[in-house]
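Entry 12.
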Amino acid sequence: MLIAYRDRKVFAFSDIHVMYQRLTIPSDADILICAGDVCEGFNPADLQDFFDWYISIPAKLRIFVPGNHDRIFDQKPIQARNLIPGGVIYLENEGLEFDGIKFYSVPARPYLKEPASIPTDVDFLITHGPAYSYLDRDLGCKQLFFAVASARPKYHIFGHVHEEGLQRKAMLGGTTFLNVSYFEELQNTL
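Predicted 3D structure (tokens):
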């Protein structure tokens, strides 16, 4: 999903489940955000293949946040992080500022295991799982909802609930919620 923001073009996606070669990324995207589920489980080779593809896409910034199917990040976090090449920023429980745009991520894969503290000046909050009642089919995380409602980032980028991917946007106060799951769209290209 392409988002025009502060003279930048941000392309966000998730839930490609090893189908990354079917994903079309606009050539004019400056910033790439992957909100997880690039693998189908614990397979370092799949993750390495994804990163080889991801780093080959021209962009000024590439962000990666793991999803629940990227199990290697939970089971062998050091091994997983060692697979991340230079040129890809891994975000989890931290933030990043790039060209005056602030990104932040908390580990909702798909649910938070503990309450999250999100800064109040974030432009893009990136999680794998959705906040409760926003493009989530009531499967989202209630703790995440309260954290987002308190912090009020400009955008909350997430996936996980495939059926809600790319359908529409939802709003709460000044936050735009975007489910960027490409799973359904990529499945339909088989």
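Annotation: The first strand starts at residue 2 and ends at 5. The helical segments are 44-55, 72-75, 77-82, 142-151, 183-187.
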